[in-house]
TrEMBL record:
Protein name, UniProt field: Type II secretion system F family protein
UniProt-annotated location(s): Cell membrane
Sequence ranges assigned to domain Type II secretion system protein GspF in this UniProt record: 172-295
A Pfam short name: T2SSF
Top-rank lineage group of the source organism: Bacteria
UniProt lineage: Bacteria, Bacillati, Actinomycetota, Actinomycetes, Propionibacteriales
Keywords of the record: Cell membrane, Membrane, Transmembrane, Transmembrane helix
Predominant location category: membrane
Amino acid sequence: MTFALWGALLGGLLAAGILIVAARVRAIRRPRLSERVLPYLRDLSLGERSVPVRQRGVVAGVFGPLLHAAADAVERVLGGARSVEQRLQRAGLDRSVRDFRVEQVLWGLAGFGIAAAYGLLAQLRGRGSPVASLVLCGVGFALGVICRDSRLTSQVRARERQMLAEFPTVAELLSLAVAAGEGPVPALDRVVRRSAGELSRELAHVLADVRTGQPVQEAFDALAARTGIPAVARFASGVAVAVERGTPLSDVLHAQAGDVREAGRRELIETAARKEVLMMLPIVFLVLPVVVVFALWPGVIGLHLSAN
């Protein structure tokens, strides 16, 4: 084929792509049914009757169906939607399982792109084969998907560590408020308004559930189910029992805060015992050679001068 034919072919493909994108953008800009109907509904509040803000952009509208299809395929292959949903709740991420699968697809595409770029460079240098490049691209996509799942697990662990670090302080504040004569719910409100952190956000959810009419015991049981942390579960159970039976809450909170602090100390000691060899590496390979050099170098210089 001549250069003119190649140019005509590429021009035709470019024009077809532009027409497809323009048609898709026109379909996206068309008002949805909810946008046309909601402003005229009288039995809804003003906030609910307002026209919803369009969340999707042109790129999301064009590539969204493909990403959702790929996310459904990843869901069928991996499964475990219930586990992913629980981990998303424990990580404090406000998104659905399908949104997480879309993120996994995006991470997989990033890995695929890196592997494809490496394979292309290898092909240009004459060192690779097409089959090996395809296999490498598939491995890159799989690694991207797995890395996003591992990232979610690390987010859960980091949030749980942060909640455990905040728990003694929050429990002590709640205990002081209860000991000062406030009820459990007003004391919880005071602590939530004067603290910040992951545990405070979870307690704010509990407070919102209680104010909407949910019983205190059920609200704290939901907190224990969302977090999955044994210390927080014991705290929720203690508060629920104290509210239901009228038992002293201040002593229970003090004891739980002390138990969490003691558990933190034990965990720190166990971590130091497990990593004793790693802690010795800087001393053996950095500090000790410097000490030896400073101790022996003057003697070596003295012997060299005396020999001369």
